[in-house]
Amino acid sequence: MIAPVNVEDFRRLTRKRLPAIVFDYLDGGAEDEHGIEHNKAIFQHIRFKPLRLRNVSERDLSTSLLGRPLAAPLLIAPTGLNGLLWPEGDIALARAAAGEGLPFILSTASNASIEDVARQVDGDLWFQLYTIHADLTRQLIRRAIAADYSTLVVTVDVVVNGNRERDRRNGFAFPLRFSPGLVLDGIRHPRWLWHLLRNGLPRMANMAQQQQASLDLQTALLRRQMDASFDWSSLARLRETWPRRLLVKGILRAEDAQRCVELGADGVILSNHGARQLDHCISPMQVLGQVVENISQPVLVDSGFRRGSDVVKALAMGASGILIGRAVLYGLAARGEAGAREVLRLLKREMDITLAQIGCPSVAQLSPEYLL
């Protein structure tokens, strides 16, 4: 078999390995999924304007973010239920990130606990927080502090769960319900099924430890019911509770980014949640330049990145770092930790080639002058 040469090749491998219900959970988005295509298509409208006769015999992808060095301006985005894609998927992703000199952001909805990841991985670990219930929020923050996570990423664009019609048609639920259809599809994907049977069904590890939870917290956990009352005053209280670096994820307006900073955020992450929440939503790339002009703190971005050239475009527009979600999950689902590292290396290779082609010797020197 020819080795995969880009992210789309890994997506094809993933589609072959996973049963439809799991692949659709990974690959799908909200409603008609126009947003997924828009996230990718937006990069086609951003064109390079190369500088010539520049010495680009050596290129440098390294940078720093929030005072820490990075091998490249990439981070592994927070994603849930990775244990369905590969055994101990969260651990595999965290190790892949550490091996490539990049931060890993653990999701609240992970299948490995805050403590397990910290014990097993020596890297820059960040924790992403879903505000499901005030009691749970306090407990998760205490645990992340105790486990020495460096950065908290609070997600604010999941007020309610998105209308993901692929999941509804498939009857997707967690834990998985072993219907006759799923059993048959699992038999058609024996490698996935063997891994699942050998390692057991993944669980929501960060939730499983809440054994002393109140009745309303238990209900919220079972329904994965977000705290729709979380507002600016809630964010201010959260900032007082978390003593380390804090980023707000899900921002799509410059004025919201400014207010996050005014309340003490150390930066923002522009995101439309990979178009999994709201169809027909703008791409973060459409507001990136405006946000960068309005705040001096780091502006990170995700949603729709499939090429190293996409990353270079965002960096040239002022982004401080790019969160990689689905792209690295295709690598994980296809080949585990090795596949995740392969995808990260593919992206870095494409970034390096793009820098050479546009006449820029380092990511630190990227600016809008390289774009039309």
Number of separate strands: 10
Instruction: State the end-to-end distance.
Output: 39 Å
Based on the structure, what is the oligomeric state of the protein chains? single chain
Unreliably modeled segments: none
Binding site for FMN: 78-80, 107, 128, 130, 155, 249, 271, 302-306, 325-326
Cofactor: FMN
GO biological process, one term: aerobic respiration
Pfam families: FMN_dh
Description:
By secondary structure, this protein is of the alpha/beta class. The chain has one domain (7-370): TIM Barrel. It has 16 helices and 10 strands. The strands form 2 sheets. Strands 3-10-9-8-7-6-5-4 form an 8-stranded parallel β-sheet. Strands 1-2 form a two-stranded antiparallel sheet. Helix 14 links the parallel strand 8 (267-270) and strand 9 (299-301). Helix 1 runs antiparallel to helix 16 and helix 13 (254-262) runs parallel beside helix 14. It is globular, with a radius of gyration of 20 Å. The two termini are 39 Å apart. The relative contact order is 0.20. The model has no long low-confidence stretch (mean pLDDT 94). Belongs to the FMN-dependent alpha-hydroxy acid dehydrogenase family. InterPro entries: Aldolase_TIM, Alpha-hydoxy_acid_DH_FMN, FMN-dep_DH, FMN_HAD, FMN_hydac_DH_AS.
